[in-house]
Design a protein that fits this description.
The chain is an alpha+beta fold and 206 residues long. The chain has four helices and ten strands. 36% of the residues are buried. It holds the Pfam family NUDIX.
């Protein structure tokens, strides 16, 4: 894989693709991706079924499940990953969140979230044949509609974002804390999904 940049899109500029284009791209990206792991392929097919059944399936308004996008921000030269201490979850996570109408594609959504939450402007996503591709998928339960509301499901599409060597992170209001961790010294308050994603990032950028 190689790394490539993607323009940030917080709002849809004139002539930009609309929500239907984002849906079309998500289907394209997931149909084109062929994970070697059978469980990951089962998740990929489940995501595609969700999108086939839900035209608005990429947005938080789609309940009980919706697609999200995230990215592990890594500095391969230093062998480290940047994690955020999420205020709602209380765990160290990769950067990520909900898709927005201005996002042209899933990769743009992942890169936008990674840039906003890391404060690093020059992140680049890993690509294959010049196209950003997912590193893995993760399906998990959350309460993104409110702590007193029922749990819903995030169908997360996870990418790898490479930071410039020695990049300095800047914490945002979305984080309780933001720190670099050595690949081999991840904090205790991480789950298997984060550890698996970091291992995948290490494999792909090593």
């Amino acid at each position: 894989m190689t790394a490539t940049g993607t323009d940030r899109a917080d709002t849809a500029p004139a002539g930009a693709p609309g929500p239907d284009a984002l849906h079309t791209d998500a289907v394209r990206a997931l149909e084109a991706w062929r994970p070697a792991d059978p469980e990951q392929d089962r998740l990929r097919l489940a995501y595609l079924r969700h999108l086939a059944e839900q035209p608005e399936g990429l947005y938080r308004s789609c309940l009980p499940a919706h697609i999200t996008a995230s990215a592990a921000v890594v500095d391969p030269d230093a062998g480290r990953v940047l994690l955020t201490l999420h205020p709602k979850v209380g765990r160290w996570l990769q950067m990520g969140g909900h898709c927005e109408p201005g996002d042209r594609d899933l990769a743009s959504a992942a890169l936008r979230e990674a840039t906003e939450e890391s404060g690093i402007p020059d992140l680049v996503l890993l690509t294959r044949d010049g196209v950003p591709v997912p590193a893995k998928l993760d399906r998990h339960q959350v309460r993104c509609t409110g702590k007193d509301r029922p749990e819903n499901t995030h169908l997360d599409v996870q990418y790898i974002a490479v930071a410039p060597p020695g990049a300095q992170a800047l914490i945002s209001e979305e984080s309780l804390d933001l720190r670099w961790f050595d690949y081999d010294r991840l904090p205790e308050l991480t789950d298997h999904s984060v550890r698996d994603l970091v291992a995948r990032a290490r494999e792909l950028t090593g």
